Amino acid sequence: MMRYEGNEELADKSACAGVRADLKMCLLQSDCCKKEKKTPRECLNRTDGSVPNECFVLRNTFFECKRSILDNRQRFRGRKGY
Asked: Averaged over 41-62, what is the pLDDT?
């Protein structure tokens, strides 16, 4: 989870917004986006090592969070992610 200074809060209050923001920042700070000037969507499909493993872990966490929104069992178990 990204650390924010002071009283910074996300403008997006929807479910999975924190994971989405962390994934976005992870991809934008990767070598793929910075040096190779690729879009974050293109960088997610690359496996050449220019994107850190943390971004792929965040992508999986974001997927699980979005899937838990549709899952009726989330009433009992709670949403995945943060």
From this structure: 89
